[in-house]
Specification:
By secondary structure, the chain is of the alpha/beta class. Helices cover 42% and strands 12% of the residues. It is globular, with a radius of gyration of 19 Å.
Length: 284
């Protein structure tokens, strides 16, 4: 990816000194997360459980509540970092769809920040547009309601992977028209064709609450999964549930491991089943 010609929009060099952390460095940092599960947590107890269960990274979110969702209190981030890593700061920034959108038409120029950005998408074109803005990791997003419904995530991941396969089978002279069709930068479309995959790390998120869900995302071609904080809700043994998902990501092609980590979780998943009321909402 081209790194020259980055436009700096902010004057504070504390966050805009891009020469110290070019895109290649940011993308390299996210490569360390491949093959892992990222857990969303809202307190230190959940963070400790996720760490002990083998989560490769944590996303700190506000506790589930009604109304407009915003970024968590920075004090909570510091508290969790001290409890786990004994240091303060953030490693990645998640430009999350769950948060209330302050600007519906303009996205952050992520090149202007030292931290790598994680951005969501629902299709191939959107993924590459976020990469052009400076995203170092792409998260194909599904259901955001916390019901444990994996269907939307499967559909969106298959959409992204399907369009990449179509691109890989194109002649070189068809690529430019394809990039216009999906409204994506031509150079990134060409790079994806050359690599046979997205040019940055690709995770899946939304409705992933069982080992089988996580394994399916990996089998579809994702590099890892995001797991929402709903896996901690109404659960007598959160560690067992999270550990099962982590192991499923690591051994997604081993049916014996998947069976072993799925046994005894029926009661733990009861609160995440899609109810008739939930189905009525999806049908509206």
């Amino acid at each position: 990816m081209a790194e020259d010609g980055v436009v700096t929009l902010y004057n504070n060099t504390a966050i805009t000194d891009t020469k110290k952390n070019p895109v290649s460095i940011k993308v390299g940092l996210t490569q360390m997360l491949r093959g892992g599960a990222i857990l969303a947590v809202s307190n230190t107890n959940q963070a400790k459980i996720a760490e002990e269960a083998g989560a490769c990274c944590l996303v700190i979110t506000e506790p589930n509540r009604q109304g407009i969702s915003r970024m968590p209190d920075p004090a909570l981030i510091k508290q969790i970092k001290r409890a786990i890593l004994e240091r303060v700061g953030v490693d990645y920034i998640d430009e999350n769809e769950v948060l209330a959108i302050a600007d519906e038409f303009n996205f952050i120029n992520k090149h202007n920040f030292r931290c790598p950005f994680v951005c969501g998408c629902r299709n191939f074109g959107e993924a590459l547009r976020r990469v052009r803005e400076g995203a170092a990791m792409i998260r194909t997003q599904g259901d955001l309601s916390g019901t444990g419904n994996i269907v939307e995530t499967v559909k969106n991941v298959r959409c992204v992977m399907g369009e990449i396969r179509i691109l890989n089978n194109m002649d070189e002279d068809e690529v430019f028209a394809f990039s216009k069709k999906i409204a994506a930068p031509y150079d990134l479309v060409a790079q994806t064709k050359q690599m046979g995959r997205l040019p940055v790390v690709h995770f899946a998120a939304g409705g992933i609450v069982t080992p089988a869900d996580a394994a399916l995302m990996m089998q579809l071609g994702c590099d890892g999964v995001f797991v929402g904080s709903e896996v901690f809700d109404n659960c007598s043994d959160s560690y067992k549930r999270v550990r099962g998902i982590v192991e499923a990501v690591r051994h997604y092609n081993d049916p014996h491991v998947l069976v072993e980590n799925s046994c005894g979780l029926e009661g733990e998943m009861a609160g995440l089943n899609v109810t008739e009321e939930s189905m009525e909402q999806f049908g509206e």
